[in-house]
Amino acid sequence: MAYTKRFDGRKADQMREVEAKVGVVPRADGSAMFKFGDTIAIAAVYGPRHLHPQFLQDPQQGIIRCSYDMISFSVTERKRPGPARRSQEISDVTARSLEPVLLLSQFPNTVIDVFINIVQADAGTRCAGINAASLALAHAGIPMTDLVGAISVGSLGGSVVVDLTKEEEDYEEDGEKAATDIPMAFTLRDKKISLLQLDGKVKPEDLKKAIEAGRKASEAIYEIQKEALRGLK
Description:
Elements: E1 18-22, E2 30-36, E3 39-50, E4 63-70, H1 85-98, E5 110-120, H2 125-139, E6 148-156, E7 159-162, H3 166-169, E8 172-173, E9 176-177, E10 179-187, E11 193-196, H4 204-230
Parallel strand pairs: 4-5
Antiparallel strand pairs: 1-2, 2-3, 3-5, 6-7, 6-10, 8-9, 10-11
């Protein structure tokens, strides 16, 4: 049985209410907030600064180092404080999704630190974090060729839907999980994929539909990010 009516009444290609703002952490070199519905991410950027210890330095270019974490009170069931394996994995994929647009060759032997905290979670946290981080890097004045926009697209019971909620991530049919979460990120001018992950199984034709839906949603995210940055002028 196909998933034809979303729990919150949205259309299949409709994101939740989206909000973005820069300059939310005054002491950081750059910062931003990005919100998908009830999911809120805050990112703060520090650097470029000299990288220690010295053996980690690259004389050809700088590096980006991301640290993602969910605050203990961000979810209904209190999360244990501190980083976990999932946090480290999301930190790594976030850095990889942002690297293609950063001109790191201009900053040899340095590091750009990006700290991402999820202060409220209702699915799509890594995507909200990537969007906040992209904005925060631009706000910090880091040379970039493009912005990066991320969105979670899901395959639920044979239907492709954009921007899953936690209720949709947990969707079941006949007592079995029937939802596949597909986080993806795009460089926003040329629409190249910088992140694509699968949590579950999906038919090839549904994956193609999901990628196209993600690209379309990323265009709307791009406009929201640009508007947030225009607010600085």
